[in-house]
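Internal tracking record. Fields below are filled automatically when a chain is submitted to the structure queue. Please do not edit lines marked as system-generated. If the sequence contains nonstandard residues, flag them in the REMARKS field before resubmitting.
Queue: standard
Priority: normal
Entity type: single polypeptide chain
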Amino acid sequence: MQRYKCTISYDGSEFSGFQIQPKERTVQGVLEKALKKLHKGEEIKVHASGRTDAGVHAKGQVIHFDSNLDIPLSKWKLALNSALPPDIVILQVEEAKANFHAQYDTIGKEYRYFVHISRVKDPFKRHYAHQYPYEVDLKRMEDAIRFLIGTHDFTSFCSTKTDKENKVRTIEKIDLYKEDDLLVFRFRGNGFLYNMVRIMVGTLLDVGRGYRSADSVADILVKKDRKLAGKTSSAKGLYLWEVFYED
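SYSTEM-GENERATED OUTPUT FOLLOWS
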């Protein structure tokens, strides 16, 4: 039995998230269906670095699975992609150690979030960016970002449905830049809570519009109250960009 580590990319628009759900189309479900086909009906379990919600995309999600098929490593990518629909692509397949785990071995992740700053909707961005019809002050937002960087309890910046008792995470870096009418956030950290990136973006957009001060972000962190932070921005602007491991 060999364990395989795969880097995959998917368009989350037509998926009800990553994790298998009854009667729903999910990334895990489609991957396991493809593996079952390759394994002549044998059920193969897929494990991911983490779950993504409905509508969330991935440029560099990582999964692992075990297989006893005698397929050369160089042929695995072609074999899997031939069995998958066009909204999921296998980018890389590697042989992994028997104890490797896509979720538990992660040391960090990078997420990116795209905001379409325009009063006019763009049909070609509707599934891939959060449409926001207001101008924002990038300097105010950059001032607020500095309070989020570092190790904090992010209770105020995660969904009340979060099932993690420990809500302390370390954000190593947040970049913010604009490309034409797209505002791009890049978050890198050791881990992220449920809806954490989307709530941080919603709060920073409030700062950019002048609805709240940059300094208020520090106060929101300290008070550990979800009601004090901004709205949860839409899933369609969020991308799991890269997952990091020791090797």
